[in-house]
Design a protein that fits this description.
71 residues; 5-stranded antiparallel beta sheet
């Protein structure tokens, strides 16, 4: 599982498992952020603008998706 903490436009993403890739996708399907991670269990992500997004995290145990709303 992943936990997301938020401070303004900054997300702190923590996982019980090693994270390998991180994708932030807008509602039209456009990939706004794509990051390859070095098997970390914590990372930061700055949201690009206001809107509704889907955060995809690839962990050592599979993919996890979370909806993120940025006002």
């Amino acid at each position: 599982s992943i936990n997301i903490s938020r401070s303004g436009h900054l997300l702190l993403i923590m996982s019980d498992y090693a994270m390998n890739h991180l994708y932030l996708v807008d509602m039209s399907g456009k990939v706004l952020v794509g990051e390859k991670l070095a098997s970390v269990d914590m990372t930061n992500l700055t949201l690009p603008n206001s809107g509704v997004f889907v955060l995809f995290v690839e962990t050592s145990q599979g993919y996890i998706a979370r909806k993120v709303i940025n006002n």
